[in-house]
């Protein structure tokens, strides 16, 4: 079946099968967060992005074999099930180095901009973006047999960048990081946000000037 990325809390996950990676998108919790389970096809090693809420729902997809849980940023709606998922699976935790102190579950692997994070034989590149929080991270997968894929947390959505609470400095920082670190990728790049439906960089690129003008 064709992947669409439109998932609802209480509904089924959506699964995307790439040549080297299987991506499962799951909606959880009162804020309709998206969690993403990445599985290396060669090794079956798994990595979870944002154990946001509803641990039993996440564990139903994860099973008992999980290598790593990455938290994209320190806001509580993105780590609500982290402690329970880690206790059930023994997975190591990873987060941006700057945001890690704001996450109550200790971070085993602090991540910096440009780091490489592996899931099995698949490499993910870490990009730090400042503005929604001081040290939010985005994970980028450059599919060697396709287009790039971005797991953007709350930094980039369909229709705009993440909330910066009308702080001009925070907006300027996040807008700059998004444009300089993400929009350098091709239009075909698929965006998997922390809430809501997916998009592509090509769909959003024409709107960058209006985002800049409106300031959010």
From TrEMBL:
Q: Which SUPFAM superfamilies match?
A: Metallo-hydrolase/oxidoreductase
Superkingdom of the source species:
Bacteria
Q: Which SMART domains match?
A: Lactamase_B
- Pfam families the record matches: Lactamase_B
Which InterPro entries does the entry mention? Answer: MBL_Glyoxalase_II, Metallo-B-lactamas, RibonucZ/Hydroxyglut_hydro
According to the entry, every stretch annotated as the Metallo-beta-lactamase domain falls at 32-195
> What is the protein's name according to its record?
MBL fold metallo-hydrolase
């Amino acid at each position: 079946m064709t992947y669409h990325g439109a998932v609802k809390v209480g509904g089924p996950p959506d699964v995307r099968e790439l040549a080297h990676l299987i991506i499962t998108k799951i909606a959880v919790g009162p804020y309709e967060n998206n969690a993403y389970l990445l599985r290396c096809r060669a090794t079956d090693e798994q990595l979870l992005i944002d154990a946001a809420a509803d641990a039993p729902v996440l564990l139903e997809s994860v099973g008992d074999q999980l290598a790593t849980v990455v938290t994209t940023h320190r806001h509580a709606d993105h780590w609500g099930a982290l402690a329970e998922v880690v206790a059930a699976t023994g997975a190591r935790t990873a987060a941006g180095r700057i945001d890690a102190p704001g996450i109550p579950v200790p971070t085993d692997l602090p991540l910096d901009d440009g780091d490489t994070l592996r899931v099995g034989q698949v490499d993910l590149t870490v990009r730090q973006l400042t503005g929604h929080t001081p040290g939010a991270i985005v994970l980028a997968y450059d599919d060697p047999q396709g287009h790039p894929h971005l797991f953007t947390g709350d930094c980039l959505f369909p229709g705009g960048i993440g909330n910066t609470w009308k702080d001009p400095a925070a907006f300027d920082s996040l807008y700059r990081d998004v444009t300089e670190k993400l929009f350098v990728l091709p239009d075909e790049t698929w965006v998997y946000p922390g809430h809501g439906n997916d998009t592509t960089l090509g769909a959003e690129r024409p709107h960058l000037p209006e985002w800049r003008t409106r300031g959010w």
